[in-house]
Amino acid sequence: MLKEFKEFAMRGSMADMACGIIIGAAFGTIVKSLVSDIIMPPIGLALGHVDFSNLFIVLKEGATTGPYPSIADAQKAGAVTINYGLFVNTIISFLIVAFAVFLLVRSMSKLERQEEAPPPAPATKECSYCFSTISIKATRCPHCTSELKGVWG
Is residue 56 pLDDT above 70, yes or no? Predict the structure, then answer.
């Protein structure tokens, strides 16, 4: 059973999938940083100095009552919060990753379409009189001797 598992795990498709997962996780951290450190600060500035990562609603006060200046302070006090700003950041991260995957799949499908050769021209045709298979270049059917000129041209 161990030998079968080793063969399964060492298949090319499994190794490719493992590499894809590792690269995808690394890409996810890059996108998260892009959203929280590059994209959201200018958007927050344009909307009046809003820090999206710190937008939350307090559902239940904690041991010490609010207002809480940050999510960390609210959680430290034991408050129950809805962190909708972090959710907005996560949605933007998802959209960036989804768009990147779309571009990757689109370019791969274009490459596949370019690699496909057109189907070869037919080498035979069917006689319209006796329905025998004959050469595409034939002008007379070798089976029924019908003249095919004009029928195929």
Answer: yes
